[in-house]
Design a protein that fits this description.
Elements (H helix, E strand, L loop, with lengths): L6 H21 L5 H6 L5 H4 L6 H26 L13 H11 L1
Length: 104
């Protein structure tokens, strides 16, 4: 199969969104045990399971669905109603992928 995005876009995505977070993860420092004892409020919400529960997972899925619909709506809006205009010209694959990549 072929990739929807061109190789330059994929390379930029890989460098920016997968390479740079690893670099910043190396610079991240945990709190000392004394710091945690002094500031227990830092971990209180995590202990109550506020971040990874069913409601938060459903909300993340709804946000993802909304963003996917927004991206495809913007892409189709840029090119008109659909992939074939009134004069029956089709939109090329490369242009469509760049609009989707720019929206995302």
């Amino acid at each position: 199969g072929t990739s929807f995005f061109n190789s330059f876009s994929l390379m930029c995505y890989n460098v920016l969104f997968t390479g740079l977070p690893i670099f910043f993860f190396v610079l991240d420092k945990d709190l000392s045990e004394e710091g945690v004892v002094v500031n227990p409020q830092l971990y209180r919400e995590a202990q109550r399971n506020c971040y990874m529960n069913f409601k938060s997972m459903v909300m993340w899925c709804m946000r993802a669905l909304f963003q996917a619909v927004a991206v495809i709506t913007i892409t189709l809006g840029v090119y008109g109603v659909g992939y074939a205009g009134g004069d029956a010209k089709t939109i090329d694959y490369e242009s469509t992928s760049m609009v989707v990549y720019s929206c995302a």
